[in-house]
Amino acid sequence: MRALMLLFVSLSLLLTAAPAYADRDHRGRQDSIEDLEREVDRQHRRMANQLADMERIAAQLPPSEARNELFVVIDSSRELLKRMARTDSALLDAATAPRRGGTVVVHPPLEPVLVAVSPDTLDDIRRAVQNRPFDDDRMAILKDATASRLFTAVQVKELVKLFSFSSGKVGAAVWLHARTIDPENFYVVYDALTFPSDRDELRDRIGGPR
């Protein structure tokens, strides 16, 4: 019975401690990738030896359902150890891959991917704006519908054309300029403005070149 209790305690400690080394912040605690590799290898061998010891103890127990369950747990733990070894190997490969000539290559962060609204969403916004009879009301709906959305310059042009008067067109263009994912194409929006003075006003308000 004492041997069985020791086996349970040992197995519990193993399953608790096994993933601990994977969670270490080795970037701050290890002096080098080589040190980390040696530590990982040492932990793997230690856990494999503990599993072998537990299997030996379990074999000395009298036949019972508990003994059979222990062998099942030991086998499952050994399979888990194999998967952990494969994962650790992949992580170490990823950690060493950027190293060139002893220098760690720091890659710049990826730029966020900006996505404009879908054609269906654009149609919904267009209908909501068109349903308002006056430009002031249309501007209020436009701001509510577009506050957290992004658009292409061509889509902005379509929305600007929904306004009847110059002030509404220019105001809509200014509002949507900050929500345009391709500002280099914003010049197409000027085609939606009727008068040269409107185009000049828009340039002034968004800081565009004259």
Question: What does this entry look like structurally?
Answer:
The chain has 210 residues and is mostly helical. The chain folds into two domains: 103 residues; 88 residues, no CATH class. It has nine helices and two strands. A two-stranded antiparallel ribbon has the order 1-2. Helix 1 packs antiparallel against helix 3, helix 5 runs antiparallel to helix 6 and helix 6 runs parallel beside helix 8. The longest helix has 32 residues. The N and C termini lie far apart (91 Å).
Brief account:
By secondary structure, the protein is mainly α. It has helices at residues 2-17, 26-29, 33-60, 65-96, 119-130, 135-146, 153-160, 166-177, 196-206, and strands at 99-100, 103-104.
Features:
single chain; 210 residues; mainly alpha; two-stranded antiparallel sheet; 2 strands
The neighbouring-strand order within the major sheet is 1-2
The chain-level mean pLDDT equals 77
Pick out the low-confidence regions. Answer: none
Q: Which of globular, elongated, flat, extended, rod-shaped describes the shape?
A: elongated
What gap, in angstroms, lies between the N and C termini? 91 Å
What's the structural domain tally?
Answer: 2
- The radius of gyration is 33 Å
- Derived from helix and strand composition plus strand pairing, the structural class reads mainly alpha
Assembly state here? single chain
Strand content: under 5%
Number of helices: 9
> Portion of residues in helices?
55-70%
Number of strands: 2
Helix and strand succession? HHHHEEHHHHH
Q: Describe the biggest sheet? A: 2 strands, antiparallel
